Amino acid sequence: MNLIDLIRAAIKEDMPHGDVTTESLALKPRSGRARLKAKEDIVLSGAAAFEQTMQLLEPNSRVKWHFEEGDEILNGQIICTIEGDLVQILKAERVALNFLGHLSGIATLTRRFVKKMEGTKTKILDTRKTTPGFRDLEKRAVVHGGGVNHRMNLSTAILIKDNHIALAGGLKAAVTRVREHSNLPIEVETRTLAEVKEAIELNATHLLLDNMNNDMLKQALAIIPEGVVTEASGNMNLDRVHSVAQLGVTYISVGALTHSAPVADVSLVFAWEE
Hints:
Pathway: Cofactor biosynthesis; NAD(+) biosynthesis; nicotinate D-ribonucleotide from quinolinate: step 1/1. GO terms for molecular function: nicotinate-nucleotide diphosphorylase (carboxylating) activity. Keywords: Glycosyltransferase, Pyridine nucleotide biosynthesis, Transferase. By secondary structure, the protein is of the alpha/beta class. 42% of the residues lie in helices and 20% in strands. The chain contains eleven helices and twelve strands. The chain is elongated, with a radius of gyration of 23 Å. The model has no long low-confidence stretch (mean pLDDT 96).
């Protein structure tokens, strides 16, 4: 689903039979200006979705952005100004804010994790734990926050996880079967040092070190050959990630970036003109 289809669906969801409150006021078009204001420190994402939502309901609206996506915005600053028929902009308000608040929330949380990586070479990675239909937008928000995208979907990269291993009858069988049918690099999920050693022997190019404590991560990294990409995952939070990065992993993946980011607090302030 492309962005405009997603916006149309969101507006249809919010107004299946029109906006009965606004329309019952029977107002004539009212030109004016609205200002989008940050009510906390945020990182901006979702500008296109916000602007296109406005323009879908008020084609003559003009949005002037004072910041670019990925910029840090302080509490109280004006993010953008919208001019046009405020009756129509009022109808678009909630859907537009839902897009921008959600995506800026992801970018803001990602930036907090990225700042914890300062002084290390480790990168923050996202996952596929995204809202159905919103993956492209949410992964773009991660990038705006300074993070790195993992595979976009199941079609773009190979990751052999525990259930694949169980279905195939073991790690060696799973890797062998995959190599028979694909030339793509192979990432393997490992949960124990024994699994790490077996994955190394099978020449996996990327090791996912899942739910390991820092001591086990340190032991695993000591036996993993140079050139093998490493990704630590599981129970990663803002208090822990710097200590994991100091161990020397290539990536730390954080599902919370997309599935648990708080919505950025922003509001639309209207200035009606007679």
